[in-house]
Every structure is written in C-alpha cells, then in structure tokens.
C-alpha cells in the first residue's frame, strides 16, 4: 500500500487540473483496494451541497450533476461526524439514501472517509463493494492517508478559483483567502511577489516583452553554471573516484541537453520570464524522474532539481533589471522578513501579505508600526501566479482577495474612507495628555524601531518611548554594527524625542528574530538561546551596545532608560546590572558627563511573573512584554498560523498574571508599564488602565485610537469591569463582554478598527 500511495501522490503532483486529480484518485484507489467502486463527493459552498465529482464503478454521466444535501445520506453522515464510517451492509443503515442516478443499488459494503483541511470538511472519499463485508484497518488507514493528501490539492484548487463543482458553475475571478491579521487597515493595489534567491519552486510567473534580452540572460546563466561545475570537478579530481566524478559530467550533459535548454528557450520565446520558464521545465523533468519505478532513476530527480537551482542563482545574478514598483504596491512573499519591509519606497507601499507567519510575529509588529495593512499566514495563496495582479488586503479581518470585483473594491474604498475619517476626528486631541472622563491621567508611549516611526509618533502625541527595538538596526545590517554606528542611531532617537523618556531594549535576537551573520540554529528557538541569554554569553556585544546608548545621551535633555529582555532569573539581572555599571564607570572615567540611566526588566516569561517582586527590588522599573508573555503562558507559537486562534490576550491566566505583576511593582513603589501589542488594543487598554499600569506603550498607529477610547471612559467604570472579568474563566466571554461595554460607551467605531485583536 505504501508503494501505491507514493505512486498516486506522484501522479497527482503531475496532474494538470483538479478534474485530472480526482480521476487519478478514484482509478488508483479502486485498483489498489481491489474494490468495485470508488467515488468522490465535494462540498459546494455556494449551494451548500455535496456534489458527485468523480467515480469508477458508478454512472459517470451523473458526475457534476447529482448532489446531496449536507445532512443527506451516508456521505452527509461521514461529513457530519468528520470521521470514517465503515459499514458491513450500508443498505440497512438508517442514514442510507439510494440515488438512482448514480446506480449504487447493488452495493452493500461501504467505507467513507472525510476530506478535511484546517478543520473544514471539503468532501468525502467513498469505496463500495457488492458483497457484505467490513473493510479492514489497513484499507481504512490507506484511504485516510490518501484523503489527507487530497485535501491540500482540493483546498488549493478552491483557493485559486479553479474548482468548478456544477455544470452551471463558473470559475471564480474574485477569490478570498483567509489568513491572520498582521496589521490593521485596508489596502487596494497591485501584488508584487518577493521571492528568495535560488528557490526555484517559489519563482512567480511573469511575462516579458524583450525576448532576446531574456534569452541572453538565460544563456549567460547556463555558461556561468557550466564554468562553476567544471571548476568544482577540477578541484575534486584528485579526491574522488572516476565513477563519482561522473556526476559532474552528467550535470554538464544535462546543460547541453536541448530537452532542457531548448524547452526553456521555447517558453521564453512565448513571452515567459526566464526564471519561471526554468521553473516549469525543471519541474516537469523532476516529476518524470519521480514517477519512475527504479529507485536509482528516481534519485536523479534530485540532481535535476539541484541543477535547476544552480542555474537560477546564476540567472538571478546575471539579470540586471531593476524592480519597478507601481503605486499602491502590495508586497507578497512566502515569508516576509524585516529586509522585505524596506524593499518598496514608502510612498508606493500599500500593504503586505505573507504566506507564513502570524499576527504576533516580529515582522507583523513592525508592519503595524509602519502603519501598513498586513495579512499573515495565508497558506493557500498561490503566489506564483499573483505577480502584478490586482489584490485587496483586509488587515482587520485577515482576508486577501485576488482579482477583486468592482463591488468589492467599492466596499473596501468605503472602509478606507471611514477609517480615515475616524483618524481625523480623533486627531484633534492628539497633542493633549490622556485623561479619563473622571480625571485619571494615563501616560501613552510608543514602540519604535525605525526612524520612520518618529515623526508619526510625535505627531500623534506620544509622551515617550516605552520600547525602542534596537535589534531592527542589527537585522538590517550584514554585520554587527560598531559602537560608534550604534551611538549615532541611538542619538537620533534621543534627540528626536527629547525631553521625553526613551526606553532602549538591549539586543533581543533569537526566536523569530534572526541575524544572517550570526545564525542560531535550534530545534526550538523560542525556548532556546535568545534575548539576555545571548548578550550575557557575549559580553562584548552587550558592553558595546550599552556604552553606545550611554554615550548617545551625552548633552541631551532626555531620559535614557535601558531595558533587559527575556529575563528569567534574578541572576541574569544582577549580572547585567554589573556590566551596565561597568560601562557607566568607564565612560565617566573618560571625562564624559552623563547620568546613570534607569534600568528595567521586561516581564515576558512565567518565571519572571512569579519573581516580579524580587526583580523589581533590583531595578528601577518593569515593563511587560505581553506578546511573548502570552506565548509562553499559553504554549502557543505566535508565528504558527495553525494555533493562532489559541493566542488570546483576554485569557484569564494572562489577565491574572498581569494583575499580579502590577501589584508586585507598586508594592515596592516602582513604576510599571506594558509595551506589547495588547496595550494598543483599546478594549484591552481599558483593563490595563484599571489594573494600574503607569505606562501603556504601543505602535504609533494605535496611539490615537487608544487615547480616544480612554478619554471617553471612566476609570471607576474600568475598575468595575476589571473586577468582573477577573471572575470569568473564558477568554471569548471576556473579550465579548469588554467589547460590548465599549459599544455601550459609544466606542463601537474603535472596536471595529481593532477587529484583529
């Protein structure tokens, strides 16, 4: 069965369309299981029915024409239960529904398996026999495994609009893809696909007009690859046996083979971009090798794939054209990186879309800080066909719409206008301090990382910086920045915000924040070497950064605050304090006149929550990093789209932890703030204010919304709400309760603007 399964999967991967896939499945399953019938029913979302889509053994004339209600027959029963149904005699089952048109009257044995993708039943795979018998466990397992493979294919076909379920149906032009909200807002524009270098399968389709130049790029890449392979072979000639060196000869032969180069050139002559032409040709040849029965020949597919990537890397270095970004560019990528965020000129950038990642990833946070609508985790998005195509990004709901209809564009233009009007309405109080209706003062600070954040933050009335992400500069570089380079950057921020306080977090890498020149390869990076652990293990990095921060504050009427990330023990605090004191002492000895900065700790792990009282005795302030704290408390990887729904800001455990930390800080008469995304959610901000947080620090895009919400709320009411929610045990109930109270207070528009939270 395993060999059959492998063969079926390979055939499916080569199939041109969904209809061909379904035909392959029913044919191969029928043969492999030696059964008389194999059929597939697919869920038609438009009509809310299961459509008879493919069969071997039943009436093929009924394909695409016969359908069942969702709760009808054994097919509906399988879908309803979302588990296999194995019946010895289906005809005696109360849910059996005889369908004359498909001709299933004589069949008794029945095994139906749901086709499920992301908890959604897409269809049902059925096998039947005339004899009365029960299919065995091996047969059932085979069908379950195959249905899991089929689910991905169907989901992709559904997502791309190529799935046509009925004879009257039409292929969809406009298609909605569900992802995860990364940064709020809506964008309407043109998709530009950003793909990694030398990753052949991720190269997008693209048309060119200058065919001759394109052929020239390809031929130059072939020549460069030939030279590279010949050089490698020459270097290894004395170290390898003749039969091993033959591999390089095989590579050179493939480059000379007109079956590859000729096919690529033919596609280019048809107007295809050289890179996607190469992708298609190499993909077809790899698929042929994968389908071969001989194990040795199958392995040659890997050689062809490697050769294709080699040619691609040369092609990319040979291709000298400059990417032109249209107005309202929406940058689409398999996995957005901080470097991607800087690719598009800001005046042309409208939105971001990432196939991987979550709304709480570092990239999403940076996108929110830039005020760019973003959707993450759009796993079914066919990026290879989206380049230069119209697209809508809904950062409120986490939706991407490709080839949008005019009515959809009209709807989203109205949303954009409403949001702009709301921002203008609340800008009036932008430069005023935040006070609740009953006079309680709330300090609202901002999180920054780029100089582009500064003007927007000040324009919106930021009273200080609660988190300056120093790692952004490190991530945009190709080496560790020098102390002087860091000093210049830090001074720009201090000068821009003077006399307001600026809280600079020491280097926080690891987890989802990687440095290309300082790789950290771990099986579980979020529980590994990151944050303060890295910099204490490398005091040269820590000392250089702290000295740069302190030197940057010389002569500036601004309060520098240094904050330590990912602290999990008081020992780490003590060691960091020792190093900071050392830096300060050495700078003073040089004759530089600066004040010793306040030092604080980020509360981001449960250990720090329970040691908050001990930690605060050693430092000047605490600041909760809610993003990581929620992640660690709930055991949810915030970059994993599969578990994104489990990342809950209003989880009772999270709220009780926050309340505990505030009480610990205030017991020692020390200040406490919060600088995670939770602070930028107006509904959550009401509860945080009630807990007693002294500072709420957020991205500049959230600042006005939060100020508007708190300024139109009473502190006394907020405390009543907090008392109520601390008695609740369900995150969804808490969120709905708070949002309802916000609406009652006339703040429904603000709640709408933060739907992603």
Tell me about this structure.
- With 757 residues, the protein is an alpha/beta fold.
- It contains 27 helices and 23 strands.
- Strands 7-14-13-9-10-11-12-8 form an 8-stranded mixed beta sheet. Strands 16-17-18-19-20-21-22-23 form an 8-stranded parallel β-barrel, surrounded by 7 helices.
- α11 links the parallel β11 (349-354) and β12.
- β-sheet strand percentage: 15-25%
The gross shape turns out to be globular
Unreliable residue stretches: 164-172
Strand order of the largest sheet: 7-14-13-9-10-11-12-8
> What's the total number of strands?
23
Largest sheet geometry: 8 strands, mixed
Termini gap: 46 Å
What proportion of the residues is helical, as a percent range? 40-55%
State the domain count: 4
Mean pLDDT: 85
CATH architectural category of the largest domain = Alpha-Beta Barrel
Q: What's the tally of helices?
A: 27
What is the CATH topology classification name of the largest domain? TIM Barrel
* CATH level-1 class of the largest domain: Alpha Beta
- Structural class, judged by helices and strands? alpha/beta
What is the CA-based Rg, rounded?
30 Å
Q: For this structure, what is the CATH homologous superfamily of the largest domain?
A: Phosphoenolpyruvate-binding domains
